[in-house]
TrEMBL record:
It comes from Actinomadura macrotermitis. SMART domains: PBPb. Residues 44-269 form the Solute-binding protein family 3/N-terminal domain. The keyword Nuclease does not apply. This is Solute-binding protein family 3/N-terminal domain-containing protein.
């Protein structure tokens, strides 16, 4: 909206007690920088939850302030979704924010429509997956649905305009179905949708990280559709008010440098990073590590890759079709990686599973097959070379408590909980599939193969 009434603006712009307008001095005379983030959207942690806990931004601002002869203070504001962060930015109340790709497009569109000092820019990336596996559709454990097509004529809960919603719509259309007619979509917050799924009020839940993994890990749902099947990149990123970047470019440089520091920490200390985020959010560390750990579903880096730029532009028609983008968006002017280039930050290598598989007695080198077994009481998960070796490791650990087991899906390569996957025995080989559809497709192509339970696979491997 170009204009808000005073009452509507007050409702949309809740600020912490004692806060002043972003960029102004606080009561102690320090220049205030306001950062909006989503603590439970764990693929933004290098610009939010983890960054805040590490204190890297404050440290860099202290160094900047010392050189300039002034003081800076950081105000962190936590939200459930990107929408209120956008509203705050349009009002000049938040300087820097982080959110998913679809909310970023909405942010840019509304900021460009309002114009002037409200304009915003996408300046860096946090977590991404080039195949779209950060978004998924889950169903209740007792559901009869085996494929996305089985949700036809039923109710699906999602957050309209989110990346999870977009994945569902695109996947549904690929089946030749009309998401506007062939399914009832209810626009709900993820937590509400999760409750609806448990109560039977929704047949499916289409959401973004970390909700699918959380519900499956807790034994409250199973994966019906892996967003990695879509092959469309999805990501999260950092957006800044253009006026703020122009006035306080060195502060933005400090933020990007601190984000790079946090990214390096996450990739070099993935277990500590996951446990830190779990402690701050209340999410299980095992779920956080599924996405953010070594070989995780998310890759963390700051570069705005060409594949992400292209996917960003391709997402615009979908958001227009559902009426979320009411004004045209100039994607090219919204994306600005010049600040990253000016910062001249060293490249950060993604976290990989490394080491030696102690049971199979071989090095772990192939990220397409490498998995991990996380034993209770051990500082880090044990690396395993492939799916069969993972089963052998689990068998060798009988009698010990295992926190989590991770292995890539044999169809799409998406890392998932091994004990929640569908296992197929094909001769001496055992293959894990994150969805029943993936397993059935393999079984149909390999008549001699047979589906087995996880426990049986462990026993026979």
């Amino acid at each position: 909206m170009r204009r808000l009434t005073a009452a509507a603006a007050a409702a949309l712009l809740p600020l912490a007690a004692g806060c002043t307008v972003a960029g102004n001095a606080d009561s102690g005379g320090a220049v205030r920088v306001v950062v909006g983030y989503q603590s439970k959207t764990i693929n933004t942690v290098t610009a939010g939850t983890l960054l805040r806990s590490l204190g890297y931004f404050e440290k860099r601002l202290a160094e900047l302030g010392k050189a300039e002869g002034r003081r800076y203070s950081v105000v962190w504001q936590d939200y459930d979704t990107g929408a209120p962060i956008t509203a705050q930015m349009l009002a000049g109340k938040i300087d820097i924010g982080s959110m998913g790709d679809y909310p970023l497009l909405i942010n840019g569109s509304r900021a460009q429509a309002q114009g002037g000092d409200a304009r915003t820019e996408l300046v860096s990336i946090t977590g991404y997956n080039l195949r779209g596996a950060l978004n998924s559709v889950v169903v209740a454990n007792g559901s009869t649905a085996r494929t996305l097509r089985d949700l036809r004529g039923r109710t699906v809960s999602t957050s309209v305009g989110s990346a999870g919603h977009g994945t569902f719509v695109q996947a549904f259309k690929r089946l030749g179905l009309d998401p506007a007619k062939d399914v009832k979509v209810e626009n709900q917050q993820p937590s509400v949708g999760a409750s609806k799924l448990q109560s039977g009020g929704a047949a499916g839940l289409a959401q973004f990280v970390a909700w699918p993994g959380l519900l499956v890990n807790k034994g409250q749902a199973r994966l019906l559709y892996d967003g990695g099947s879509l092959g469309v990149p999805t990501f999260h990123g950092v957006v800044v008010r253009k006026a703020f970047a122009g006035e306080k470019g060195k502060v933005l440089q400090a933020f990007l440098g601190a984000q790079a520091d946090a990214t390096r920490y996450l990739n070099t200390e993935p277990v500590k990073a996951a446990e830190s985020v779990a402690s701050a959010t209340g999410l299980p560390a095992e779920t956080v590590y599924l996405y953010n750990g070594a070989g995780g579903i998310a890759t963390f880096g700051t570069e705005i890759k060409p594949e992400l730029r292209a996917a960003f532009a391709q997402d615009v028609p979908f958001l227009k079709s559902i009426g979320v983008l009411q004004k045209p968006l100039d994607v090219q002017s919204f994306i600005n990686d010049s600040y990253l280039k000016q910062a001249n930050l060293p490249a950060v290598e993604p976290a990989r599973i490394k080491g030696t598989d102690e049971v199979c007695k071989k090095p772990v080198t192939d990220p397409a097959t490498a998995g991990e077994v996380w034993v209770a009481g051990e500082a880090a998960p044990r690396p395993v070379a492939d799916a069969v070796c993972l089963l052998r490791n689990v068998r060798a650990l009988q009698g010990k408590q295992i926190r989590a087991v991770y292995v890539p899906d044999a169809a799409n390569g998406t890392r998932w909980f091994a004990d929640k996957q569908i296992w197929v025995a094909d001769g001496a080989a055992f293959k894990p599939f994150a969805t029943q559809e993936g397993a059935q497709r393999y079984l149909s192509a390999h008549p001699g193969a047979k589906a087995v339970s996880y426990d049986e696979a462990v026993r026979r491997a």
